[in-house]
Write a structure and sequence with these properties.
The chain has 351 residues and is of the alpha/beta class. It contains 7 helices and 9 strands; from the N terminus they run αααααααβββββββββ. Helices cover 23% and strands 7% of the residues. The protein has a 9-stranded parallel β-sheet with strand order 1-2-3-4-5-6-7-8-9. The chain is globular. 25% of the residues are buried.
Length: 351
Amino acid sequence: MSIYSLPVELRGEIAQFSDHPNLSELSKRFKLPHRIRINAIYQKLIRSGFVGIKLPQDRHAPDFFEKRYQIQFRYIAKLNKNLMWDLSLKEIEEMKAKGGVLSAPRLIEMHKYVERKNQNHALLAMWDKILAELGDVAIERDPAAIREWMRNPHNQERLGRITSLSLWHKKLKVIPPEIKYLVGLQKLDLFFNQIEVIPPEIKYLVNLKRLKLTKNKIKVIPPEIKHLENLRDLLLHSNRIEVIPPEIRYLTNLKWLDLSSNSVLIIPPEIRHLIKLYSLKLDWNRIEIIPPEIKYLERLGVLDLASNSIEMIPHEVNDLQDHTKVILRNNKVDVVPEEFKLRVTLEYYRY
């Protein structure tokens, strides 16, 4: 049960506890569910401007509390939890009257606040890793101070010597734009975060060889990806990507491309330009057709298309190298024609 479910109109009685709150009495009086942390909820109610709440006098107060008057704050649900308490009581009432929608100016202001907060959090996480590499930087751990330090051309030269950055499982929601200063990066690991967008500043990481963004919330591979011509491993497993952009054609040094567990619909014809590709993992997507351009991937060792919607194996599959294994389990292909049996499997293939 979350405090966000509290209906605005339930007011009236909490105010009397403001001087000497008796939390046990509060719990008993309002018949709150046992699992709710009464103290935390009480403090949040006071801070957020509720003058009080009043629950109906019946036996089913917990059910009432949880289900009957839940308010769905559209848009706000996407913002940081703590932001809820920056709203005034008037704004909360306004949201209720408009079905949960804030006024446009306030919504824009709050989005900017959240964006700034997320960028600062990501910058500080990145900065901690940079300090571990540089070691002798004596500045305050403050986003503004860090940005000023990074803008210094002399310091940018030092930043350019960093070759590896690992920020996995840091609860990042953005990649900070200051990533552009790490031009010497060869490995960037952002595995298991909450990142939704790959920023255009990624284009400055021209020396990057391995980019790992597995288990995030990315929807789009930006066109700036074309600048990463030295990239060998592009790992985007478990995101929300629907389209492989045509700019993929410029990644001619790519050896491992992992887009498993996304929502990809089409393998683009530009895939033909990835002539060094060894592993192409596209399992657990929504692909229906294997394009004829697949035959140009002469070094391909594994083509994993398991758990898609493929109905037919094109004859171009036989133009692949003899060692290539094509995995098609859990598709709409029931029987493998005799001509493909040496390379195509409908079973699990361990490699």
